[in-house]
Amino acid sequence: MNSAREVLSNQDGPFKDLEKLVRKYAATEYRRPVADHTRNAFADAEQFIANFSAKGHAQSEGPSCAAPQPVILDSGCGTGESTQHLARRFPDYPVIGIDKSAIRLDKAGKAFDTAQSRGTEARNGDAQQNEPKNIFYVRAELIDFWRLALDKVTSGQWVIPYHALYYPNPWPKQSEAGRRFHLHPIFPTLLQLAQETELRTNWEIYAREFEQAAGIVKEIPGHTSTSLSTGAGDDNVVVKSVSCEAFEPEQPITAFERKYKNARQQLWRVLVHR
Ligand SMILES: C[S@@+](CC[C@H](N)C(=O)[O-])C[C@H]1O[C@@H](n2cnc3c(N)ncnc32)[C@H](O)[C@@H]1O
Question: From the CA of 77, how far away is ligand 1's center (Å)?
Fold first, then answer.
């Protein structure tokens, strides 16, 4: 039984003003204030990562204590299936699942961890007992979380080897195109965060647009950083390669991926390396 519908859109190709928007946002600084609730959620994640690191888990190679802490992000993690998958793929790194939906985060029986509760062994339920210990879920707005995370990266405290962006809301109507992450002022920040960013989607136009937008940023020599830190340098924005392909997962790793696979929809992924 499957009920996943194909994405319906009044677009039949990439958004007409894509290049104009991407160039505009690459040349300007995004200054919307960060919401307090995301700032607080970020502080919890930061604490979890600091505790994880203090317990002697892997740090990236580099000069002793100055080495940045590797952190994996699962943005828009939904019910957390992919976060669990990533936690097993990267057992030595903290994996942060971020979503704004309390219902989705709750669904898998995962109360929002706090750094304090994570420090105690007493957690209820088999699911939680079997959960990898390197996971931390936060309820937060991605657009704010990413800017706070970029400050950690540009200050050399974190390095993000892999950032999962699996099946973000497509906002398929043309009138909503500006809400797609690659057509939003946040896009340069998003591209600067991780060494590898992987977008997955069931809408080819979203994948092609994301690829095209990342390709445009790639060609812009050292544009203005959109980090919250005023002092962030121009050399942060180095996109080395961008690729887009259709793919078929043998084993779905997210709830939406399973739905789309069962509905025999074509899936797409874009990989950005920096
Ligand atoms: C289509 S669902 C995909 C969930 C999951 N990645 C999966 O594949 O099953 C998109 C998720 O992104 C979250 N989301 C969308 N925009 C967000 C934002 N700006 N900040 C935080 N979460 C967001 C939604 O709450 C939702 O859980």
Answer: 6
Flag whether 5 is in a domain: no
Q: What is the 3-state secondary structure (H, E, C) of 161-212?
A: CCEEEECCCCCCCHHHHHHCHHHCCCHHHHHHHECEEEEEECCHHHHHHHHH
* Ligand 1 neighbour 128 (Cβ under 6 A): no
Residue 99 Cα, ligand 1 centroid: separation in angstroms?
6
Q: Distance, CA 231 to ligand 1 centroid (Å)?
A: 31
pLDDT of residue 50: 95
Task: Tell which atom from ligand 1 comes closest to the C-alpha of 200.
Answer: 8
Domain count, the chain: 1
Percent of the chain predicted with pLDDT > 90: 73
User: Which residue range is the domain that position 106 belongs to?
Assistant: 18-55+67-273
Q: pLDDT tens for residues 217-260?
A: 999 876 544 444 433 344 456 799 999 999 999 999 999 999 99
Q: Which residue has the tokens 């390396």?
A: 273
- Which of helix, strand or coil describes residue 10? coil
Q: What pLDDT shows up at residue 66?
A: 72
